[in-house]
Amino acid sequence: MQKRKIITSREIGEKIKKQRRKLGISQEQLAEILGVTYQQIQRYENGMNKLNVENIQRVADALNIPVSYFFEAEKPSKAAEKSAAYLPSDETKLLRHFRKIKSSGSKNIVIQIARIAAKANG
Fold first, then answer.
1. pTM strictly above 0.90
2. Which among 9, 15, 21, 60 has the fewest CB atoms less than 10 Å away?
């Protein structure tokens, strides 16, 4: 049986930093989303502090990625390979807030407002 490689806190931290930068989110902004200090984000990104299961889920949600992203092996990039698609930071913020809405009625209102706004600009 082949032994699986254990993902280190440092590797998870590097992935947090990579995705945060890709989305154009500062450490301070991510800290505010997660309800921690920016120093805590620095410690996560440097691998100084370990993330528990709950915090890994919170970070993944804040960065709009699946939890599995932290445990996937890095694939070597190819020159012809397209960069991964991601949402601009304003869309990420909207999605993050939308996910916090519990009521399906309230979610429908937000969707209707977005439709109206899109038609007004389209």
1. no
2. 21
